[in-house]
Amino acid sequence: MALARETAGPAPAGAAGAARAALRAARADRATALDAWLAALLPSRPDIALAAVGSHARRELTPGGDLDLVLLHRGRADVAELADRVWYPVWDSGTRLDHSVRTVNEARTVARGDLKAALGLLSARRVCGDRALVDELRAAVLADWRADARVRLAELAELSRARWDAQGELAFLLEPDLKEARGGLRDVHVMQAVAASWVASAPDARVRGAHDLLLDVRHALHDVTGRSSDRLVLQEQDAVAKALGMLDAGVLQRAVTEAARAIAYAGDNLWRRAERFSAPRRPRSAARPRGVERSPVGDGAVEHEGEVVLARNADLDDPALVLRVAAAAAQAGLPLAPATLDRLAERAALPSEPWPAPARDALVSLLGAGPAAIGVWEALDQAGMIVRLLPDWERVRNRPQRNPVHRFTVDRHLVECAAGAAALTREVARPDLLLVGALLHDIGKGWPGDHSVGGAVVARDLGARLGFAPDDVRVLEAVVRHHLLLPETATRRDIDDPKTVRSVTDAVAAVPGREHEIIELLAALAVADGQATGPAAWGAWKARLVAELARRATAALSGGTPPPAPALAPEQLALARHDGGSVRVTGSRVTIAAPDRPGLLWRAAGVLALHRLAVRTARTISAPTTPPDARGDESRRRSNGSGGRPCSTSPPFRSTGRRRTRPPSKPICAGCSPTASTSPNGSNGAPAPCGYGAA
């Protein structure tokens, strides 16, 4: 079966490039115009200067950005008058202004006590006035920053972590804050401040390119909305994409995700070095030898200063080396050194098709490391190694999932799922197929159509590429094709019905003799997939249903007799004898007995939800089906024979202009009991007292 590729692709590079070049030119022109205007406002006097900090100092001021200025002086008595001649015209123009008036010593003192002020003053730029004054300020603040780097970097790391906790990770948010979220613009500015301390290198070309993209997106967002908000909300994404010359919101989100992940990965490397610098120094033991300390962590890999690097005797022509070094790093819980990644990407051989067994085993070992594999996989991805090893990965790489249930992009979800499946490998006979199946279960989301069907085709091709035996490839294909079988069947159908169990066993019969194994793999994959998706996708109730369905399917495959349906209690049998249906409430248990028909469950659930009844256990009891002519049409279900009126105990929804709200409900009336949702009359056949017989 061949898969048709998507016809829609990204907008031509020329269109996006031209749009972004126009935005950059607009920012540069605005910075030049602002400098000229501000210079005209400040009279030419000795010992006074106007400096810009923040985005205007970097010439990155977007339409919604704040103007942040510092008026420097050497103790002039008329400084207040001079300041008013600058601030008031700026306020009158409607520009948002953050301002201060300081001497160099005052500004230096503020920077020592206020971390955010120090970060701004590190990038101070002269707008007009005494150049020596601004140079003196920059030199003083920078000298203090470097002298106190050990303390200030620890404070900066704590401040950054608090911001990440509050704003989340930009790459995986549906509506991210482009500036404050992890991987956003603020992180690049922090990286520049760390580099100013000489602890780490300045951001490289890739990070600068990612920063420029996010800055262009922020600029376009301010233009489109006319507001200063930096949150890229869903309803604005198509318009922002159009302003940037991109095809649609999906392309925009994918570009933002890629940029954010590049920044976040570079930040991780930078903070590791900063934390080593800030950590208390331990005295060197006299017994410890001097020189470079290395300890082996695997074949061809050693640990050095908290990172995994290549051993001196590593064979770069070994096709399994890349994955073996990555697996060693993950198993040891250590990151790969950036220099080692660059060397592997440039010079290391990659396995040819089909992969040799050592390369496949190294991949399984990497995935089997659990959560520690996620960071190592991200490092390989940032180095461009994953798409070279698995070409089909490009289809899901950085692909957003515009669904609030999912916490991650498609590719990150796959890695998270494989990491979670590592904890379940003892529960299956083939851990390797579980791990690879978890890695590939949503690989079809990069193709049009049903992702389970398309993913099965991709998994079959990749299974052969990885060198699995033909029967194993068929199992892998079946696992990807039916990875939703157990959770969807368990939550949508009655697992007491033998037909439900038979539908599961029929689906896994494509690989004769491996049915038990497939059920086992699907059960474990359902757990890993649900947990990797998010808390809304998995819970104890769903886990119990999936486990029970898998147990019954396994028993059926073994020739066992499916367990009978649970026996009804006497009071439930008594309820079932009422042809019109009945309801009984005992404490927190609600039992409903009614003629079976389409819509019964959701109507009963709607009534319970409407009246805020807390239900811990609900079970529907099938009774002889009422003939169609006794059910009545929709109008009979909505009113009684006399036309009816809305139930006085259930006030209708009202509109407040922005959203629909419902007043607090009153106690449920006898006529609007759950029975009323299944029969036009009351439980005894009489019209409902309120004249409104359905929810």
Low-confidence stretches: 1-12, 286-290, 613-695
Rg over CA atoms: 33 Å
Distance between the amino and carboxyl termini: 48 Å
The main β sheet shows up as:
4 strands, mixed
Please tell me about this protein's structure.
- The chain is an alpha+beta fold and 695 residues long.
- Helices cover 50% and strands 9% of the residues.
- It has 27 helices and twelve strands.
- It has helices at 13-41, 79-92, 104-113, 115-122, 131-147, 149-167, 185-196, 205-225, 234-243, 249-278, 321-332, 338-347, 357-367, 372-382, 386-389, 410-421, 431-440, 451-465, 470-481, 485-492, 498-507, 515-533, 540-557, 570-576, 600-610, 628-631, 634-638; strands at 48-53, 67-73, 97-103, 125-129, 295-298, 301-304, 307-310, 582-586, 589-595, 617-623, 654-655, 660-661.
- The strands form four sheets. A four-stranded mixed beta sheet has the order 3-2-1-4, sandwiched between helices. A three-stranded antiparallel beta sheet has the order 5-6-7. A three-stranded mixed beta sheet has the order 8-9-10, with helices on both faces.
- Helix 9 crosses helix 10 and helix 14 (372-382) packs antiparallel against helix 16 (410-421).
- The model is unreliable at 1-12, 286-290 and 613-695 (pLDDT under 50).
Topology:
Blueprint: H1 13-41, E1 48-53, E2 67-73, H2 79-92, E3 97-103, H3 104-113, H4 115-122, E4 125-129, H5 131-147, H6 149-167, H7 185-196, H8 205-225, H9 234-243, H10 249-278, E5 295-298, E6 301-304, E7 307-310, H11 321-332, H12 338-347, H13 357-367, H14 372-382, H15 386-389, H16 410-421, H17 431-440, H18 451-465, H19 470-481, H20 485-492, H21 498-507, H22 515-533, H23 540-557, H24 570-576, E8 582-586, E9 589-595, H25 600-610, E10 617-623, H26 628-631, H27 634-638, E11 654-655, E12 660-661
Parallel strand pairs: 2-3, 9-10
Antiparallel strand pairs: 1-2, 1-4, 5-6, 6-7, 8-9, 11-12
Helix pairs in contact: 3-4, 3-5, 6-10, 7-10, 8-9, 8-10, 9-10, 11-13, 11-14, 14-16, 16-17, 16-22, 17-19, 17-22, 18-19, 20-23, 21-23, 22-23
